[in-house]
Amino acid sequence: MRAMGSLRHSPRREMALVLMLGVAGAGLVFLAVRQDWAHVRTAAPRPLPGSDSAVTGQDLLPAAAALAVAALASLAAVVATGGIARRLTGLAMAGFGAGIAAAVSLRVTAADAIAAVSGGAASPGAAGSVTAGGAPGGGAPPVAGFSAHVVMTALPWHLLAVAGAAAIACAGLLVTWRAAGWPVMSSRFDAPERIRPRPASPAARPPAARDTATMWESLSRGEDPTRGGPGLGS
Predict the structure, then answer these.
(1) Is the pTM of this model over 0.85?
(2) What are the helix and strand counts (H, E) for the chain?
(3) Which residue of 46, 68, 71, 212 is surrounded by the most CB atoms within 10 Å?
(4) 3-state secondary structure 200-226
(5) How far separated are the first and last CA of the chain, in Å rounded?
(6) What DSSP letter does each residue of 45-89 carry, written as one string?
(7) CB of 33 within 8 A of CB of 124?
(8) One digit per residue, pLDDT tens: the chain, 234 residues?
(9) Partners of residue 161 on adjacent β-strands
């Protein structure tokens, strides 16, 4: 209860915690999609070598990583904006989290992994065979016409990506809900305005400056300031 009370009275700290939640969620998504979600193993008769090609989550679900990048960009927009723009940014962030969750919730099949390894060109009518093509991440290329055995290892990374998507969505909803009381970017970062100096009043000028000003005023009226007589042009 004491911690909740301190958060209520510290908008800056609350904003920082929500932003950290969004960053952590995006980091979990990046970590998950960069791991191996499947291995495509092709056996070939001797003397041809077999292959063991790793398929990452980014190979299978490129949209998840792209949405995570968009979520990070929206976090920067939360810091730079305020008011209704900040609330709309929070809604967009929540949408990005929902999109990541939907993307990683799609069922990844062995045919998807084979297609990713072979550059999307799986042999028609044979889910266990692949066409010739380079395997990403090294190793021997898949051999056309030979069966490929797929080992799926996506379950832990799939759950991690879902957790990251949930964190991003929660951060976006919190931004939409609590943004009204958060501080905006300080005005000291704004461009300074040019202030024109005001001329000093005659009373505020020093005596020497007042005498000089009086002489010039007399000269402009055509008077001789040293004699106090008629103008110089008379």
Answers:
(1) no
(2) 8, 3
(3) 71
(4) CCHHHCCHHHHHHHHHHHHHHCCECCC
(5) 92
(6) -TTS--EEEEEEHHHH-HHHHHHHHHHHHHHHHHHH--THHHHHH
(7) no
(8) 454 444 455 888 999 999 999 999 999 999 999 999 988 887 766 776 667 788 999 999 999 999 999 999 999 999 888 889 999 999 999 999 999 999 998 888 888 888 888 775 343 333 333 333 333 333 334 445 567 778 888 889 999 999 999 999 999 999 999 888 888 865 444 455 555 556 555 555 555 555 666 666 766 666 666 665 554 444
(9) none
Kindly give, in sequence order, each residue whose CB lies less than 8 Å from that of residue 3, ignoring residues fewer than 6 positions away.
none
CB 163 within 8 A of CB 21: no
Q: Which two tokens stand for residue 174?
A: 């919190």
d(CA 73, CA 57): 21
| Separation of alpha carbons 52 and 181, rounded Å | 54
Pairing relation of β-strands 51-56 and 148-152? Answer: unpaired
Quick check: 46 and 55 in contact, CB under 8 A?
Answer: no
In degrees, rounded to 5, the angle at the alpha carbon of residue 156 between the alpha carbons of residues 75 and 29 is 15
Contact of 40 with 186, CB cutoff 8 Å: no
pLDDT computed for residue 151 by the predictor: 85
